[in-house]
Each structure stands twice: as C-alpha cells, then as structure tokens.
Fold:
Amino acid sequence: MAVPGAREQDLRAWGDGPLAGVTTIGDSRVNLAVDDLAPGEFVEARILFPGTLVPGVRQADEEALPRILAEEARWARQANLERAVPMLNLLMLPAALVGAVVVWGALYLSAGREHHVSIAEPYLREPPERYPPAILGALLRWGRPGRQDFAATILDLARRGFITITQEDGDRPAYRFTRTAQPDDPLQASERQALRLLFARSPDCKSITEARLWSEAWKHADVGRRFRAWQEAVADEARRFGFFDRRSERIQHATIHAYWLFALLGIVITVVGIVWLRIPVVTSMVAFPLFGFLITLLRGPIARRTPDGATDLARWRAFRRFLTDFSMLHDAPPPAVATWEYYLPYAVTLGVAEKVIRQLPVVYGEETGRSYQPSWYGGARLATGASGRGWDALSAASSVSRTLSRSLAAAASPRSSSTGRGGGLSSGSRSSGGGSRGGGGSGGRAG
Structure:
C-alpha cells in the first residue's frame, strides 16, 4: 500500500490474520506479507496516516487514534498469547516438576532440616530421660508410636508389677499375660489404655494367652481401634514434652491439601483460558495437579524436632550405642544384672533388644543367669532350675515383644473378616461376615 507524501513517522499499520504474517513500514509505503495463506483464511490490514495527506476529504469530528490503539493493543496481546500457547503447553509439565522440587526444597530448608546438636559423650550408660518407652517411641517416630513401642510398654508395666508373664509348657514357647492386683492409679492414661487393650478380649479381663490375643486381634476390628486410640493417647502425652517444631507441623498439615487446591486451580485456569481468553492451555489440567501431588507426596520430611527434641534424640542415640557396644567397653564395669530389666523396654523401642540379650551371657556368664530371676516372669524352665534361667527370662521378653507386635499387625490386617466392615473376601462358598477395615500406619520419617 503506497501513501504518497507520507514519511515513515507519519504512518502506523497493523496486520490481522495468520500469526506468521509480517507488517513493515517505510517511507510512503506499508507492506503486509503472509506466506502459505490457506484458502478462505482471514487477512486484514489497518493503516493510519495524517488526514492532511488527502486534501479536500471530509473528516469526521473524532479523535480516533486512542480507540484504535486500544483495540490493536488488545488484539496484539491475544495474538502473542496464541503464539505462546504451544510452547506454554510444552513447558508446563517440566515446569511443574522443577517448581515442585524448588518449593519443596525451600520448605525443607526453612522448616524441615533438623537442628544440628552434638553431645560430648559418645556413650551414655543410663537412659538419658525417665519418661516411658512409648514416649521415646513418639520421639523416634515423629509423634506416632509403633507396635514395638506398645510391646515395650507392656514389658515396662510387667517390670513395675502391673503384669506377670508366664511361659507355659508346650512344644514351643507360649506366654500368658496376667493382670496383678496392683491398682492402676499411678499410671499414665496411655498406660491404662495399654492394659485395657491387652486384656480387652480376655474372658475375665485379667488373663490372656498370646494365642488368644493373636486370634482375637485377627477377628475383631475393635483391637485395631483400641491400638490407634492408644497411639493417640501417647501422642497427646508426648506433645507436652515439646519434641516437635509447631511451625513445621503447620506447614506439613497445610501441604496435605495441596493436591486438591492445585487440581482445582488447574481446572479453573483451563476453563478461563479456553472459554474467556480463547487460549487452549490444556496441560494446566495436568501440570497443576502434578505440582500439588508432588508437594503432598513429599510432605513427610517437612518436619523437624525442636532443639530440645533434637538434643534428646542425640542422647538416646548415645544410649543406644552403649546398648549395642557395652560388651566391648572396658573403661567401666557393666551395670548390675537387675538393671537390664529397666533397660530392656527401651532397648525394644530402640530396636536393639535381641542384640543386647545375646551379649548378656557373654559378659556376665551362665552362673549369674542361674542366680538371677525377674519377679515379673515365671515358667517351667525357671521352676525346674534350668541353667541360665535369668537369661531365659530376658530372652522371653524379646520373644514377647515379637508376639505383641505380631498380634497388632493382625489387628491392622484387611484380611480379618468377621466384622462386616468391608475388606478382603473370605475363602469358601459362603461367609458369615464381611471383611474388616484396613489398619493405619505411622508414616513419616524414621527416627
């Protein structure tokens, strides 16, 4: 298009149509170029120049330039967005992955990285704190004690005289738990719940064998519910010790809803882009939920202990090193044999009970084992005076912890099918009841 007498600065021009089109302006000329124009495709050019270049023409009384500039700016923005859409759709998924990693890293560094503490002693020869083993389990397992911590609680209650454990005659070790007459007034709420859980399915609420405990845990859903109630009671008691950073907990809980929040955001952006802006940003329906899913999935490490909690953990680890290495330490005599009754529940929670028990006969000898008998344990071997009866009792404590853990695992199994609450199918042609609900896990990081 030639405009005689027009200088370059007198001209303005826009092209509308295929995004690949190009508009150029020179002295007295505007060029609009479109390659490979499809049949029936729209093309339009708009050219502005001073009215004085057309003498005698009748002009409308309107300042048209602001309106035209606003229209063309709006259309240009839309065209630029349409050009960017293919690249945007291509980059949105990797951007979601990278963004999730960056956001998670920032959250971890600000709220999830543990406080660095150090203690002078590599070994502690006594438990650094006097709270129950279940509270130690909560410290190790981020507020959610596990099955081994329940077993440690039962052993600790036996040591303190609230339970006796008897090994019964048979082809293999079998144990009976019996409630003593000692009142439970001095106990913590979680310890009373542990006793109720242990004897919940006992005919007289005072005595139960391990076989019946396992069978009842397998068949009845209330055992699993009672165990989770015990976990919550321990968690409530552990909160009073201030082990965990409250800010980290709030951030971690907030990320639970990240998936649904970003899934909704992805839908909104897609609908707005397609319906209102006429831009097919379709990958936002995948990228935003992916971002939220990754943040939710990785929320576990976004938690940390307080400085006091981290210090307690470091000291308990030093005690754990002593339990595993005491037979090799020669700078001080080992503790009195009876002291191991007190240590053993903590060793169960720390996961080193079996290693500790294997070292006891080596360090103290069989003669010491014959003269030592825990007050809370009895059985056929002890009654006949078998060699090493004290070591038999402590070995039985390790076996008891495995028995209790096995029973609680059965309570959490979805294969239990007597309660009619959904779950696995029973074998055979007919079933008298439906399945049982699945059990809950502790989650989070290991201590």
